[in-house]
Write a structure and sequence with these properties.
Helices cover 74% and strands 0% of the residues. It is mainly α and 91 residues long. The longest helix is centred in the first third of the chain and has 36 residues. The chain is elongated and about 60 Å long. The chain has one domain.
Length: 91
Amino acid sequence: MIERGFVIGGTRLIKRAWQIYVAHVLLFVMYIAEIGYLAQRYNDPNLENEFNVAYFMRNPAECATRLRRSTTGLSSRSNLSTWTCCHFSFY
């Protein structure tokens, strides 16, 4: 960073952080898709509840926009659903 300058180092840092963020989003989407597939394949709707993604699977758009409007509505939900809403509200 000293050799190339602060601006170049900062932009490289932001680029790397963005790459890690996108990889994280893709892994989460693959995780949700796999749970949904297994729940359908084995006809086990309780599988979504076991992995705490049932609320997100039922209505993902509401989950993604609810946190933008109010943070008080998610206090009784599972931690993963809350994390999902936080994550996709910045996407």
